[in-house]
Amino acid sequence: MALLDLLGRRWTLRILWELRRGPLTFAELQERCDAMSPSVLNQRLGELRETRIAAHERGGYRLTAHGKSLLAALAPLDAWAKRWSRR
User: How buried is residue 58: exposed, middle or buried, by Cβ count under 10 Å (0-12/13-18/19+)?
Assistant: First the structure.
């Protein structure tokens, strides 16, 4: 239930999606997430770092191995959403 709670928080899935191709700085994430407020972005990134789904390094924020495996686990949901949106 803890994971569902985390993923259900506003912007969490969007942040994961944006990090899928590699590290992004705070400013890049904020821009890609439709200029979400810095306080919300900071809070979500803190939660993702605390749960070891994301990490911060020189190049910015990135998905950890756990984050990448989570994204892979969500891939069937993405495929379903693409099929559903074509209807």
Answer: exposed
Q: What is the pLDDT of residues 67-80, one digit of tens each?
A: 999 999 999 998 99
- pLDDT value of position 35: 76
Each domain of the chain, given as residue ranges in start order, spans 2-85
Whole-number pLDDT of residue 73: 95
Task: Taking residues 49-63, report their average pLDDT.
Answer: 96
Non-local CB neighbours of 56 within 8 Å, separated by 6+ positions: 45, 49, 62
Q: What is the CATH number of domain 2-85?
A: 1.10.10.10
> Do 45 and 15 touch, CB atoms closer than 8 A?
yes
